[in-house]
Amino acid sequence: MCVDRTSWEAAVRHLYRDAYAYIATGPRRHADWTLDVLALMARTVPDPRGWARVDDAEKAPKRVDDPTWPFAVHPPEYVAPRLKEIDRDSAENLLLALTEGGCTLSNLRYFDESPDELRAMACTVPARYGDEAVCRTNVSKTGSAPGALDFTSESLGYSPMSVFTEDCGLVVVSDTEVGLFWNFNDL
After folding, report:
1. Is the previous residue joined to 70 through a cis bond, with omega within 30 degrees of 0?
2. Residue 129 and residue 173: Cα distance in Å, rounded?
3. Residue ranges of the domains in the chain?
4. Share above pLDDT 70 across residues of the chain, in percent, rounded to a whole number
5. How far lies 55's CA from each of 35, 40, 77, 106, 159, in Å?
6. Over the stretch 104-126, which tens digit does the pLDDT of each residue have?
């Protein structure tokens, strides 16, 4: 699936309209993709295509003293093992689950679109990075098979990357770009 700027930005803006989200893409500059993820968390790199970024914390007063806020500052050795690889289907489900706090698919009932229409939007987002892109997340669902997330399970686990009590996200790594899709929830 080839995706253009208009369809990608429309999907991102619509899906995350009610989330406290950070959606950004940066260039892949390092063999160790974790360094590129940290650059995105620190907001030190622009989108290589000039496409939209969603940064709901952009005007937060805490950002004056800490440009990475609400992400906590961690070294690559902390981040890499906490971002587990998942399959594309799980990544698309996760993109839908990230539309609100709680990281579940139950929030889809708040959209006017059908589940198929929402799924099409979720498919548009990782399409930007190509079929060979690798998807990773800090989310785990008890009972899921390796590389998959079972969203029928209510048991959610995650490795925190922020100062909030819950943060769930997806990293998409291609040969040329790294995408970061994150939702913050202060329970």
Report:
1. yes
2. 7
3. 5-185
4. 95
5. 20, 11, 25, 24, 21
6. 888 788 889 998 999 999 999 99
